[in-house]
Structure prediction request, 363 residues.
Amino acid sequence: MSYTGITKIEAEKKLTEFGLNELKAKRNNPWWKILFSQFSDILVIILIIAALITFLHGDHIDAIVILVIIILNAGIGFFQEFKTEKTLEALQNMVNPEARVIRDGEEKSIDIKYLVPDDIVILAEGDKIPADGILLETHSLQISEAALTGESVPVKKDEQDNVFMGTAIVKGSGIIKVTSTGDKTEIGNIAKLAVETENVLSPLQKELKNIGIFVLKVTLILCVFIFLILLFRGADLMKGFMYSVSVAISAVPEGLPTTITIALALGATVLSKKNVIVKKLPSVETLGAVTTICSDKTGTLTRNEMTVREINTPDGQFINLVGEGYDPKNGHFTGEANDPDIKMLVEIAYKCNDAKLVKNEKS
Prediction:
């Protein structure tokens, strides 16, 4: 069956109407938001107030010391979280960004973000489905919907069946007509739910918040108590106020936020060496309290990428293969590469499948 697809003008109109085929719900915190989040802790707010009052009181050196502590604390936290955001962005970009579509009766490759409803998309084995759609044509098509359902067993698909963005073709090929893009897709709805989920404080953050409230109460009580005593003894109103505030400020643990931040940053560094990405520093302490992790297997503990690990030739050779998934890095020829049996096996495998590795600018 031949398809003409939509025209270039129709595609431009639909792109204006429906927007880019992207998940806008995806939370990528800008650098300034990460920076300001470092000053949201109640202890840090108390320290900022303390530094301001100390400066107004004339104790400039003490005020500078407190500010240095605040900046050091914010700098360490910002550096760690910003670095993690960049790492996550790099991981998100390791995706083939193009799709084969039919427009104006011609087959062409376009960036998946420019897909629009009613586009005709050609899919082959190994492709990830770039948008929600309905199947117009199938050839022994099986799709892994693990990204959507968590179930690793491939699902057989026929004409008129629905397919979903983010799922992958593990066998066969097909042609789809796009029905939904971006946030209107099923995976987009899931992404919205993830973004709308309320941020829950970690045990450490709850404890620090309680400590901060306790310190604030003690400071206020101490301030009022000393101020009343000084007034009772006939001290000047302004001098009495500034003195009572100065004494109360001395009860604030200036080094506590920085000490905790440094300890968490060191923990995050240790975890990063073991290939664990820590997005939020307080998560380090939370992870330390975990006894059991209930995790989805496919796509989390495993990559759902079947690869050859060992070759057994007719003459009894056992050859181990190295590498991870479909990643072509660090590949090199060994002495066994010239073995005629190996050459024949590789040639047969090459001719009996249509898999391919495509290198683009981002991966």
Observations:
- Residues 310-351 form one domain.
- The mean pLDDT is 79.
- The longest strand covers residues 132-144.
